[in-house]
């Protein structure tokens, strides 16, 4: 199952760069990155065909072999996202994929 998920990520995912908080090491990653759907009318939001999405919080789904930690950064195109929460999702005690909640870095360097 893990191999199938990683094949899907490789075929349909985005090219991201993981920047380690401690060392500044940059690691290329092929993963999914998308904004969270909003349930309430909080700002800032953007309207999409699926509903309102947050401009602040993002969901990362990536390969289990690359573990993210809070404080790491994800760079995608010209934007940066800070890892707030990260976990490895397992099935039958085997790691399937990594999941993280990211917060978009605002202009000027602050979250």
Task: Give me some keywords for this one.
six-stranded antiparallel barrel; 7 strands; 10% helix; 111 residues; globular; mainly beta; single chain
Structure report:
By secondary structure, the chain is mainly beta. The chain has one helix at 2-12; strands at residues 14-19, 26-37, 45-48, 51-63, 73-76, 79-91, 94-104. The chain has a six-stranded antiparallel barrel with strand order 1-2-4-7-6-5. β5 and β6 (79-91) form a beta hairpin. The termini are far apart. The model has no long low-confidence stretch (mean pLDDT 84).
Shape, principal axes of CA atoms: globular
| Main sheet: strand order | 1-2-4-7-6-5
How many strands, which pairing sense, and closed or not: the largest β-sheet? 6 strands, antiparallel, barrel
Uncertain stretches: none
Overall structural class, as computed from helix and strand content, comes to: mainly beta
> Which bin fits the share of residues in helices?
under 10%
Q: Number of helical segments?
A: 1
Radius of gyration over alpha carbons? Answer: 14 Å
How many strands appear in the DSSP assignment?
7
Straight-line N-to-C gap = 36 Å
Which H/E pattern describes the elements? HEEEEEEE
**Proportion of residues in β-strands:** over 45%
Query: Roughly what is the average pLDDT, rounded to an integer?
Result: 84
């Amino acid at each position: 199952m893990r191999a199938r998920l990683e094949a899907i990520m490789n075929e349909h995912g985005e090219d991201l760069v993981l920047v380690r908080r401690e060392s500044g090491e940059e690691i290329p990653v092929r993963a999914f990155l998308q904004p969270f759907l909003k349930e309430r009318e909080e700002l800032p939001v953007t309207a999409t065909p699926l509903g309102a999405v947050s401009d602040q919080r993002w969901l990362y789904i990536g390969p289990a072999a690359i573990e993210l930690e809070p404080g790491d950064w994800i760079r995608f195109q010209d934007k940066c996202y800070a890892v707030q929460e990260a976990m490895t999702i397992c099935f039958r005690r085997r790691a399937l994929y990594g999941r993280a909640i990211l917060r978009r870095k605002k202009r000027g360097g602050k979250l």
